[in-house]
Amino acid sequence: MDTKRIRRVKEAMQSEGLDALVCRLPENVLTLSGYWPLVGWSFLLFPRDGEPTCIIPHTEEQEAREELWGGECVSFLFGVLGAGNPYEDIARALKAASAGKGWRRVGYEGSFECIAPPWNAAETAIPANITRGVLCEVFGEALIDATDLLTSQHACKTAAEADKLRIVNEISNFGLRTFSEMVAAGVTGVELVAAVEHAIMTQGTGYKGAKRVRSFAQVATGPAETLIGFRPMEISTLRKIEPGDLALLELGVVADGFWSDRTRVRVAGKPTPQQTAVLEVVKAAQAAAIKKVRAGVTAGEVDEAARAVIRDAGYEKEFVHVTGHGVGLRYHEPIPIICPGSDLVLEPGMVHSVEPGIYIPEMGGIRLEDDVLVTQTGAEVLGAFGGDLA
């Protein structure tokens, strides 16, 4: 059990006057119980005093009982003949678990609009109006939106959570290495994606105890595709890489519910002087930002450390995005955002990306992205890996 996480959440609940939390989103179920749901139909009732109750589809009872830190595990028939209405089953279980408690304030996930998926990322279930109706039926006027509390709890990771993030970033290196070795003339972006994801799944599953590993690789190739490599997604194509082309890998990896976000760029053959010069600027910008990171520094100061290097090299207008974002329980988290002018003060345990980039017409885009853990004295780079073009 991550006792530090449990203590932090209960202290926050005490401060907000919450008697209990009821959560459905996988990232919150994981944070509060240790269990990363297989599908999005698990509900966790987490009281400030007493033991939690996890209500799960019977199809994932084995995994839940292996991973849950404690409390009661209640299952209902799901996805088989004879199964009833899951909302009715969940409502009955919630009523039974909360009966006689006299709770006056129960927090729920009322305003989440960007969420992390369960293990089955192909289909994500979210707490919308039907879920709210069920919760209102059970808790009535006691139900209040606790989105801000839950979001703030993700901002600073515990030591146990930091260990999980070290592992997922190390697993991502299997993909980075494969990408670095495979970029060559004649290879397509789709082929690179397939190879990267194969390496992560086969080498990452079981690595340091990781049970469930999945990757989301996206590769842009050539000047036109990598020029827009700053977008939050790349569209991998069957275009064959030509000699001298850049290939940009945007790589999200999840291991047991914990996420990493990495980017690397390689060139097919020998880099041009321009490509080499731009990479050196990006490297220097990333190093400057990482050197600036420590508890007590603002996110804006970290951004400026990277942006100043790029500005001094004459590429200010070609650095079109923020320097970083939170990461960990989700691929992209809102705390902290490393952007110009931000006065958010970094705290120990925050984890964020550092990803300066330069995007030039006719050449394409070059970005380096790594995840760092904020400490009192500096930044720990998670899963350090080289960033050369060739």
Task: Write up what this structure looks like.
The chain has 390 residues and is α+β, with helices and mostly antiparallel strands. It has 2 domains: 3-153, Creatinase/prolidase N-terminal domain (Creatine Amidinohydrolase, Chain A, domain 1, 3-Layer(aba) Sandwich); 159-382, Creatine Amidinohydrolase. It is built from 11 helices and 16 strands. It has a 6-stranded mixed β-sheet with strand order 4-3-2-1-5-6, with helices on both faces. A 3-stranded antiparallel β-sheet has the order 7-8-9. A 3-stranded antiparallel β-sheet has the order 12-15-16. The radius of gyration is 22 Å and the shape is globular. 48% of the residues are buried. The mean pLDDT is 97.
According to CATH, the fold-level topology of the largest domain is Creatine Amidinohydrolase
User: N-to-C SSE series?
Assistant: HEHEEHEHEHEHHHEHEEHHEEEEEEE
CATH class of the largest domain: Alpha Beta
Structural class: alpha+beta
Low-pLDDT windows of residues: none
CATH architecture of the largest domain: Alpha-Beta Complex
Distance between the termini: 44 Å
Query: How many strands in all?
Result: 16
Work out the helix count.
Answer: 11
What is the radius of gyration? 22 Å
- The side-by-side strand order for the widest beta sheet comes to 4-3-2-1-5-6
Number of individual domains: 2
